[in-house]
Write a structure and sequence with these properties.
By secondary structure, the chain is an all-alpha fold. The chain has one domain (4-108). Helix content is 80%, strand content 0%. The protein is built from 5 helices and no strands. The radius of gyration is 22 Å and the shape is elongated.
Length: 112
């Protein structure tokens, strides 16, 4: 056996779909536990949409189609990463604003 797709045969697409859905669900669950915001979850949704829309179009009996699908997973990871980075920047901005407010608070009570 040289390929999981050959080994799984007709079950390849359903198993790939179930694996992808499980991956995105676990990623979302991790984001919930971590307290991530909308940008993170939007990245997951966009990546899931891209991956799950490509899978039905892939002809698993054609090696070129499988290779194209495999190579098209790189942008899926980049979309997830972009969502994580944007979410971190948004949360960092919120945190910086809160920290500045806290730092200013003691001095705002001082009257001259």
């Amino acid at each position: 056996m040289s390929s999981a797709a050959l080994f799984l045969g007709n079950y390849t697409k359903p198993i790939c779909t179930a694996t992808a859905i499980g991956f995105f669900m676990l990623l979302a669950y991790g984001g919930i536990l971590n307290g991530n915001g909308a940008c993170f979850f939007m990245g997951i949704l966009l990546a899931a949409r891209r991956l799950l829309s490509l899978l039905p179009q892939t002809d698993i009996d054609k090696p070129r189609d499988c290779m194209k699908f495999f190579l098209d997973t790189v942008p899926v990871g980049q979309i997830i990463l972009a969502g994580m980075v944007l979410d971190a920047l948004v949360h960092r901005g919120d945190t910086m604003h809160a920290a500045q407010s806290i730092l200013r608070a003691p001095f705002s009570m001082v009257t001259v």
